[in-house]
Design goal:
By secondary structure, the chain is α/β, with parallel strands linked by helices. It has 14 helices and 11 strands.
Length: about 350
Amino acid sequence: MRTLTVDLAERSYPIHIGSWMTEAPELLAASIAGSQVLVVSNETIAPLYLAKLTALLPAELMVNELVLPDGERYKNYETLNRIYDNLLENSHNRTTTLIALGGGVIGDMCGFAAATYQRGVNFIQVPTTLLAQVDSSVGGKTAVNHPLGKNMIGAFHQPKAVLIDVSTLQTLPPREFACGLAEVIKYGLIADPVFYKWLEENLDGLLAGDVEKISYAIDRSCHNKADIVAQDEKEAGVRAWLNLGHTFGHAIEAFQHYRHWLHGEAVAAGMVIAGELSRRLGYIDEADCGRICSLLSRAGLPTKAPGDMTVDDFMQRMKVDKKNRNGQLRLILLQSLGQALISDDAPPEEIAAAITACQ
């Protein structure tokens, strides 16, 4: 077991990494407040892990379960209301605890429900996908999507704990695992050049399912995110680095109505565009761009943006990005491989050229 701490003063919380369901099941009960629990999962994860998780809960708790449809296209207000309905129908009060069992969609929606139900209740993240384990479960960002933009309706609401059981990755399809690797690679690119080189040297082991290497990659990714969140919880500065590739990626997802590419795939293509724009602005060179494309390609991720998207398709959707300030497009670029920067003044013609070059 590895344990990290997200240091946010009185709202600090642990991230436990390991096979905790079998080795340290008491961690779940230790993070529960009150006598009521609602476990929220989806149709894919519930048959695999819901019964196993609820069996770890103390018998004296009142436990309700809610299984939602699986997929980014269900991350909306209609699905969110099913969580509120369950809470109200079962008379959950302000001391209840919500448990998010699943990937990033479940974690984001369950967290947003916890942030807003009776003005805020406790919740626990139990992420079961690599992407959720290294990214969305840590940091307290919760949200649902709007047809015009991803994660546009949400709140910052930190969990009581993040419980990562690496064994859940054994049932994760290869495509979903690759999507998680996109976020893992992101950490190396934005803030950890040593880790990026380690990824280049150890990617084959990760893809082969080496548990020690996977656990190390999760630990290093969570360490990087926890450090950034502790510095900037509400994304006033360096936390924006975590959005490398996401502005372009979210545009791809919105264009496709969240139905074709997965989040990690869109982010991978977005990181390639961000790298190309960084090259055009003189920060990194062609060899650096080649290293980015090579690693993403080896991970089984796309390195080209969708060919049916025009530059205008990108720009119209990027205008509603949450990082933008006073109508100015704010992008996360690379000063070097391992060092991100925030750019508020990238020339529109260079952005357009970067998008076109990556299609």
